[in-house]
Amino acid sequence: MKILSVVGARPNFMKIAPFIQAIVQHNKLKTDNSQLITHLLVHTGQHYDDRMSNTFFEELGIPKADINLGIGSGSHAEQVGQTMIAFEKVLEAEKPDWVVVVGDVNATLACSVTAKKEWVKVCHIEAGLRSGDINMPEEVNRLVTDRLSDLLLTPDHLSNENLKKEGVEDSRMVFVGNIMIDTLEANRHKAEAIPIKTILQNNIFENIQRDLPDIKDENYVLITLHRPSNVDEKEVLEPIMRFLIDEVANNRTILWPIHPRTQKQLIQFGLFDEVKLHPNIILLKPLGYFEMLRLNMGAKIMLTDSGGLQEECTVLGTPCLTLRWNTERPVTLKENGGSSVLVGNNVNRIREEYKEALKKQPTPVRPPHWDGNTAQRCLKAILDAS
Ligand code: UD1
Q1: Nearby residues of 274 by Cβ (< 8 Å), 6 or more positions away
Q2: Residue 194, class by beta-carbon neighbours within 10 Å (0-12 exposed, 13-18 middle, 19+ buried)?
Q3: How far apart (Å, rounded) are the C-alpha atoms in residues 115 and 96?
Q4: Which residues are catalytic?
Q5: What band does 207 get if pLDDT is binned at 50, 70 and 90?
Q6: Cα separation of 314 and 337, whole Å?
Q7: Cα-to-centroid distance, 83 and ligand 1 (Å)
Q8: Cβ proximity of 44 and 7 under 8 Å
Q9: Which atom of ligand 1 lies nearest, measured to the CA of 306?
Q10: What average pLDDT does this structure show over 316-323?
Q11: DSSP assignments along 112-150, one per residue
């Protein structure tokens, strides 16, 4: 059997790493050649910087991509269109039995559509997540990918419910758990061993000369922001920045690994220098997987608009303020037993929940099947469906 799996952007790498490992393990146990799996990894190249891509391959032991489509930055239509054109040629040359896509980025959409048009079976890992917000590019990607996929592998029961409501038959979906937690569990100890100071020293943002404070666990707030809905408009981003600068950074150190999109926007809105030079805000370059996991483990509070971090906070117990009005991952929310609260981008609400979160102790939660063995269940589901 030949499986071709696809990655494109940063949040895909931690999802594909355990899946590739599961294939390697499967092949080790098979003596009969007919049961061996041939695997090819395609990187669309949507994320291309070392820090957004290569670092994750090295840290997580992902083999170099067999094929890199070199798509790079662009509008959504450019990224999706160019990926489809290039991926069609790959499918014609390689003729896989299955294309496996993960998550909800532009690569997920482009490659699932192309595969179906070439009559190749598609498996979607992390199927069934729904934010209900069609203005979010990732929601469009999820809806189209799930509509087309032959096999829908879901991270939680709520996702199965979502798919059922959309009319998906039970035979097309398998509840496998959260594959990203496989990566977290496999690397927890490595991450724990990294001193925070080393992370700061190795990642301090370009051209900033400063003495680094001695930061201890629970003494800092960790921030990530990259969603277009939070960073692309000055009217939205500026009040959030004022809250961070005037209220949070007054009392606590903020550690902020900054996404390229957010950096560009802060520069454009004339806000970047104030943030960069603030004595209590430590801007960092995009971090590696172990470094981010380590900082998450020690954070007093996480403020983020990333879906993946919401999930990692749930398992680690870090109180998480999610700067969004909705989430495709409701299993991470406080009302469902998780550690995350939706605060949108309204500063009054962010402030109120920030104060509440400061009073909290870390409370790790483990939803069903978020146990580190999801990749094996994914591969079994594919073999069963073949
Ligand atoms: C993408 C995903 C999003 C995911 C996020 C994680 C889609 C629709 N969005 O959003 O789901 O949460 O990745 O990071 O697929 N850039 C660089 N270097 C890079 C990559 C990007 O400088 O290696 C710059 C580009 O110039 C671009 C901006 O960052 O303007 C945004 O990149 P893009 O790939 O368009 O989307 P993300 O916002 O990263």
Answers
A1: 241, 245
A2: middle
A3: 9
A4: 226
A5: low
A6: 9
A7: 15
A8: yes
A9: 12
A10: 96
A11: HHHHHHTT-EEEEETTT---S-TTSHHHHHHHHHHHH-S
Compute, in degrees rounded to 10, the torsion defined by CA atoms 346, 352, 354, 358: 180
Ordered domains of the chain (ranges, CATH): 2-178+371-385 (3.40.50.2000), 186-358 (3.40.50.2000)
d(C-alpha 50, C-alpha 45), whole Å: 11
Mean pLDDT of all residues in the chain? 95
Neighbouring CB atoms inside 10 A of 246's CB total 9
Ligand 1 neighbour 137 (Cβ under 6 A): yes
Hey, whose CA ends up nearest to atom 7 of ligand 1?
A: 105
Burial degree of 227 (CB within 10 A; 0-12, 13-18, 19+): buried
Report the nearest-CA residue for atom 9 of ligand 1: 105
Question: Number of C-alpha atoms within 13 angstroms, CB side, residue 2?
Answer: 10
For 254-307, write each residue's pLDDT tens digit: 999 999 999 999 999 999 999 998 999 999 999 999 999 999 999 999 999 999
CB of 258 shorter than 6 A to ligand 1 = no
Q: Which amino acid is at 263?
A: Q
The CB of 73 under 6 Å from ligand 1? The reply is: yes
Give the distance (Å) from ligand 1 centre to CA of residue 96: 28
CA neighbours closer than 13 Å in the CB half-sphere of residue 278? 25
Region of 218 please: left (phi>0), alpha (psi -120 to 50) or beta.
left
Report the atom number in ligand 1 closest to the C-alpha of 72: 20
